[in-house]
Amino acid sequence: MTEFTMTIGGEPIAAPATFAVLNPSTGAPAGHAPDCSTAQLDQAVAAADAAFQSWSRLPDEELRRYCEAVTAKIGAHAEELAVLVTREQGKPLNGLGSRFEMGGAGAWASFTAGLSLPMKVLQDSNEGRVELHRRPLGVVGSITPWNFPVMIAVWHILPALRTGNTVVIKPSPYTPLATLRLVQLMNEVLPPGVVNSISAGDGETNIGAAMAAHPGIRKIVFTGSCATGKRVMMSAAETMKRLTLEMGGNDAAIVLPDVDAKAIAEGLFWGGFINNGQTCAAMKRLYVHDAVFDDVCQELAAFARTIPVGDGMDEGSILGPVQNRMQFDKVAGLVAGAKGRGAVLLGGEPGEGLFFPPTIIADLPEDDPLVQEEQFGPALPVIRFSDEEAALRAANDSPNGLGGSVWSRDVEKARALGMRMQCGSLWINKHGAIQPNAPFGGVKSSGLGVEFGEEGLQEYTDIQVVFS
C-alpha cells in the first residue's frame, strides 16, 4: 500500500501517524496519508515565510515563468493525477470525471499564469505623481474540499504564486493523496518552501482550525461547507486575516413554459448531476412551469437512464459513488423523507456500498428538506409552479446564493428574470459553467470574495499607494 508524504521546505516529510484514505467505489484503501501534528504545521508556515522573503521580490516576469513551469508539470502528469483522483474521490476517469478535472486544472493554471496586476498611475501632474501598487500578502493558507481535489488546489495555489505569495495547503482528509502528489510535482520546478503541503485526518487535532488562527498565515482561502466557513471566519478574526470563502449553495433553476423539453434535458441533467451532484454550483432545486412540467420530468428521467454508474476505474462508467459515508447517509436520509411527499421518477433506493443512483423526485412541496437543504449528491427535487413571480420568490428564499439559472427560448426574457435572482453567477439555458476569465463567488451565506480572473488575483494582494 502506497504511503504518501507531506512536502515542507521542499523536502518529503512523514508524520507521527498516518491514516487510510478509502476508495469509495470499493471500500479498500487507496493509500495512506500523513496525520500532521501542530508542530509540523508550524514548520510548514515557517518554511513558507522564509521562502516568501525572496519569492515576493521576484520580478513579475519571473513569477509568470515559474507559474508556466508549474502548468507544464500538471500537464505532463495529468493521467497519473487523474487516476489518483478517481481512486480516492470515486469520480470516473471518463465523462465529466477525473480526466475532465485535470483538463480544467491545466486550463486554470495556464490562464492564471498569464495574468498580471501592473502598477496603475492615478495621477501624474504638477501636483505630484500617485501610483497604485499591488503587494503580496505573505503566507497563504489553503483549505480544500473533497469534490475536486486537484482543480480546487490549482484555483487556490496558482493565484497565490502569481502574486508573489507562498502557500501552505491542507486538503480534505477524504481526498489528500492527489493534492500531496501535486505539491511534490510543483516542488520539482519551484524554490523550496514556496508551496508546502500538510494533511490531517479527523482526529482530535484540528489542523484546519489551527491554520485559520495561525499568526504566521496572512490569508485563508477556503472552499467547503457554510458551517465550516463560518468557523474559519471566526478563527481568522483574531489575526485580521484576509479571507476568500467559497461555500455551499442551494442553486435554483427556473424553467419557463416556452422550452423544448427534449432539447434541454441533457443540460438540465448535467446541471444537477455533474460530479454526482457533489458540486457547490450544481443545480439543487429545479422549478418547472406547469405547462411543461410533465414533459420536462419525462425527458429528464429518460436521459438520466442512459448514464452508466459504476466503479470509477471502469472506463465505461460516467458517474461513480458518493464520496464518503457521511454524505451518502445525508443524501439517503433526504431522499427517504421526500419519497412520501413526492413522486419518485427515477432512483430513490440506495445501492451497494456508497453507490446511490441518480434520483429525481417530482412535485415536492417547497418546505421539504430535500428542497430546503443542500443535498450535495445525486438527488434532484423538481417543483411545479404556475406563477413566475412565485417561482422567483421561492428561488431567492434561501440563505445561500452561489448560482442560478433560467431556461427559455426567449433569452432576453430569461436574462431579465434571472438578473433578479440573488446569486453570484447566473446562467441562461445552462447551469454551473465556469471559466478562468470570469470571477466566481457567492452572495449571502455562499461566500466572501471571488476567485478567477483579475478580480480573483487581486484578492491575494494588499494595495500600496505611493505619493511622490
Automatic annotation (TrEMBL):
Domain Aldehyde dehydrogenase, first and last residues per copy: 17-466
Record keyword Acyltransferase present: no
Family label: Belongs to the aldehyde dehydrogenase family.
Pfam families (alphabetical): Aldedh
Keyword line: Oxidoreductase
Positions annotated as active site in the UniProt record: E246
Gene3D superfamilies: Aldehyde Dehydrogenase, Chain A, domain 1, Aldehyde Dehydrogenase, Chain A, domain 2
InterPro entries: Ald_DH/histidinol_DH, Ald_DH_C, Ald_DH_CS_CYS, Ald_DH_CS_GLU, Ald_DH_N, Aldehyde_DH_dom, LUC3-like
Entry annotated with the keyword Protein biosynthesis: no
Name of the featured protein: Aldehyde dehydrogenase family protein
